[in-house]
Write a structure and sequence with these properties.
two-stranded antiparallel ribbon; 7-stranded parallel β-sheet; membrane; globular; alpha/beta; Rossmann fold; about 15% strand; transmembrane helix; single chain; hydrolase; protease; 9 helices; 11 strands; transmembrane
């Protein structure tokens, strides 16, 4: 994630890998950028962005950034940020970012550029839906609510540059809900520099694109976690992006990412937006399939724990002819177990035993009434004669 070690006034900010399921953590970080961002946007050339933007800019696609909010007034994000929602506290429509993380993610996805000294996103034609979630307490994470909000408010891609070591029924259900609504879910795999030892949730859930980071040489970034759930790798080290402040606290600055799967995740979310704009009829499963099938294999042949299916190749992802698929190659969340028909949803109380007792009482009353009726009839007729 983008996080502070000591806050904005110390001007120490980074796009580190992830928030452990809603917790902003410190990370080794350079200061807010003083150099023109294009000097540190090497990933754009590596991904052949000029050629890519002749094919697609992501126009018409909404990407939700479920994060720390997005500084909507940044000059490189002006007009790119929709009204979203802060899921906890006073609602600011998601347009305030006190930690810079969400703003950096948004810039990597959809910054408009504009020449030297400005940041350019992977999908500058896309719109950002900012959804601010709790980021200061593990127990207070409301990521599931943020995911559902994003789905219900038009997001076709959800960027989750955050995660944690465990999941929950609510998080599982939120991801399942997104998949059922044909939304592409992209999540950061995690950073070893922040103590992560394996692919985090929700990145490791079936059907979610778990993203690892690469460096300038295209090699696996040393701080990216490894794991069998990794789906794809993308640039995530030594890149510049948008921030809420300059070092002197003026608004609208930039920051340089030393390394992090949060940044790589934003790049892949931008890629998903490009594909959804180019192929508007493609399902979420087909978008995922296109990303992984066109990735450049790296490391051991086939899918591996460092690069997944390989390094992101935007040009191939947008131009390769692929047969449609019906299923997400990364799997899908299993269907939720059907609720017992005698259980009232959300009540927390199972009425099954009560229904059984009530049925037995009704049967007993019926038997008693029947016996009484028979006895009365016999008395009325007198003893039988032979």
């Amino acid at each position: 994630m983008i996080g502070h070690r000591t806050g904005l006034r110390r001007a120490v900010v980074a796009l580190a890998a992830v928030i452990p399921l809603g917790v902003v953590v410190g990370a080794p970080a350079p200061a807010l950028a003083d150099v023109p961002p294009l000097q540190k946007q090497w990933h754009l050339d590596a991904l052949r962005i000029k050629e890519v933007h002749r094919v697609s800019t992501g126009a018409g696609v909404v990407v939700a950034v479920v994060d720390t909010g997005v500084y909507a007034d940044h000059p490189d994000l002006a007009g790119q940020v929709l009204d979203g929602k802060r899921m906890i506290g006073t609602d600011d429509k998601g347009k305030v970012d006190e930690r810079n993380h969400g703003t950096g993610v948004a810039g990597l996805i959809a910054a408009r550029g504009g020449g030297a000294g400005h940041a350019l996103g992977i999908a500058p034609g896309a719109k950002i839906l900012p959804v601010t979630i709790a980021t200061n307490t593990f127990a207070g994470s409301n990521m599931p609510d943020g995911i559902r909000y994003a789905v219900d408010h038009g997001a076709k891609v959800i960027n989750l540059s955050n995660g944690g070591p465990t999941t929950s029924p609510d998080l599982d259900e939120a991801v399942r809900y997104a998949q059922s609504k044909d939304v592409v879910v992209v999540a950061a795999a995690g950073n070893t520099a922040q103590g992560d030892t394996g692919v985090l949730y929700p990145a490791r859930l079936p059907g979610v694109i778990a993203v690892a980071a690469t460096d300038r040489q295209g090699a696996a970034w040393s701080g990216s976690v490894r794991g069998e759930q990794i789906a794809i790798a993308a640039p995530g080290a030594d890149v510049s992006t948008t921030a809420g402040r300059w070092p002197d606290l003026r608004e609208g600055g930039y920051l340089t990412v030393e390394g992090g799967t949060s940044a790589a995740t934003a790049v892949v979310s931008g890629a998903a937006a490009l594909i959804r704009a180019k192929y508007p009829e493609a399902s979420a499963a087909q978008v995922v399939d296109r990303l992984v099938k066109t990735a450049v294999d790296a490391g051991p042949p086939g899918r591996d724990s460092e690069y997944g299916f390989g390094r992101l190749d935007l040009v191939k992802a947008l131009t390769t002819d692929l047969a449609p698929v019906d299923a997400n190659p990364l799997g899908a969340m299993p269907a939720a177990e059907a609720a017992d028909e005698n259980t009232v949803e959300g009540s927390g109380f199972d009425f099954g035993p009560l229904v059984a007792v009530a049925g037995a009482l009704v049967l007993l009353v019926f038997v008693v009434v029947l016996v009484v009726v028979v006895l009365v009839n016999r008395r009325g007729r007198g003893p039988a004669h032979h």
